[in-house]
Amino acid sequence: MKNLWNEEEASNYNSDLALRVYSSNLLGRSDELVLHGGGNTSVKSMVDGEEILYVKGSGWDLVSIKEEGFAPVKMSTLLEMAALDELSDTDMVSGQKAAMIDKSAPNPSVEAILHALIPFKVVDHTHADAVVTISNSVNGKDHIEKLFPNFLIVPYIMPGFILAHEIYKMTRDFDWDRCEGIILHNHGIFTFDDDAKKSYDKMIEAVSVAEEFLQQNANIEFDKVEPRAFDVEKLKALVKQEKGCEIVMKVNQTPLALHYASQDHLYMKATRGVLTPEHIIRTKRIPLIVNENLEEAVHQYITEYKAYFKNFSSDEIMLNPAPNYAVIKNFGVVLFGKNEKECNVLNDVVEHTMMAVLRADKLGGYESISLKDSFEMEYWELEQAKLK
Question: Which intervals hold domain Class II aldolase/adducin N-terminal (predicted)?
Fold first, then answer.
């Protein structure tokens, strides 16, 4: 992975927060690190004698974030929250909001408490494709431990307070100076330092290790596939009917999409879950898979989604059960959105997911988070708020 740091550019940023903006933008420039609102960054700084965490505001993209996109939260409040045995989402959000020294700033990232726990000035968190691809393989735990022996490795845990509190417990007697970073299985990677460049460098170096491993062990060559004829307008009409609103459709027939859609046992291969949990609010857990009978495939998808909801719901209201994208055997991938922008965002996420699935299969098999964990992320109010 290319290191984009430029000393001449960096010298123009003279405050903690300004330099935090610069290195955040650098991370955001690499799609292999973050996509469309993914990841989060922070910097700790003294303001009027009090330590403040400036953390990425919810809904901002790292590639375009500015100083006003960071939420300034009192460190003392965040550290008190981390030590609590229980904390509801509502109380976490309201408590963080109350602890902000600028009430006009955006809501802090759901990972604000975790950023506060890490005792370094600068913290970077990405959903690096290479790292998550490896951890989403059936032997991912072993591979990650061998590749990153000096990292704190954390099994998948629901993001937000639950994750932060678990890491609080894991690190009470912990030597942070010997820790090079944190890897959250099926989720992402953290690096940190008291220097912005060093934290950024650590991220690039760690992701490069993962990329090199994949290049040596999971290289992909696309089969040449001639797309079959398929009535996409009929598909669009059926999905529009199920969604109950106008939709925009995008067809992806890149070599990657055609190779992915031509796999044997397509339903089994393409319905194993999301690359990183945050993606589920855009893609749903799985796509619509179409082999032959289109109407039957759509009916099956809706039926299975309703069963999935019924199995895991308590008092949630079901989202629209229609698919957000489809994989059509020997034709390619089709995305559905309320506008062209949503289609393009969805396409980006799906392309990264397809490549990760193919590579993880080279490592022995792709394995995402469980159905239950998927449901909790899809219906988590803090994730739904991001889309709004």
Answer: 19-214
